[in-house]
Fold:
Amino acid sequence: MSPSYRLDASERRDLEEGGFVLRRNVFDAPELVAIRTACEALVLRLLAEKRHRKLSVGSYNFELQRDLGTVVKWEPGDIDVVQGVEPFAHLSEELNRWAHDPRLLGPCKDVVGSDEVILFTEKLNLKRAQKGGPIVLHQDFPYWMNLTPVAGRIATAMLFLDDATREKGCLEVVPGSHREGMQQRRSVEGFGSLEIDPEGYDTSRLVPLEVSAGAVAFFGPFLVHRSPPNRSGDDRRALLYSYQPPGNPHSRELTGLARKPEMQPGKSARTDE
Structure:
């Protein structure tokens, strides 16, 4: 029998008490090379696309690529540097396959609380060397709560494609924050109102997760987290696959992005924390 990769008793305690589970050395070096190559091919494809109007929304700079059914996040002030892409599994057969790896699915079944899970959304985060900006303090739940009734059960597996250190802008989490409900958010209009108000939050509780490439962090939608800028000379990339109980629509359907199939069979297409 193949392993299930479900959480063991100790990891279940970590999830219950801290709100996240960290597994190291989940993916090996050759696998990481293949995944990084698929990610960079996706980015190249997006860079080759016709540019559309970019919108400054909250703390970010977004471009809707409706023909591709995705949204590109650009580094503010530098239109040639991609900061993130969401969703992307429909654009890359290879990255879609990795989303169904049992090493990601198994633990997320326990976070979701279901013996079967399906994708809800996928995000590629790119913190380019000395250019990658911050991901602001937030919880995932506020971004999803008006999209789906199962927002409170969505689990995210964050696969670190490069070594993540403080200098490179590693993920920072607040252990136990998943038990505290929704945090006070910024008093602004629109998308920015989904961000946590840093003036009303004790950021001294943040703990940096410095990990080697190949590690995976698993967490639910209420964990408070952020990541600082990348001040190093190396990239810090990560894939975030978010899963939900079966029988629920993908975020592309809920947001009107699912208009035409864009998968390229046999090829890797190209396009938080």
Observations:
- The radius of gyration is 17 Å.
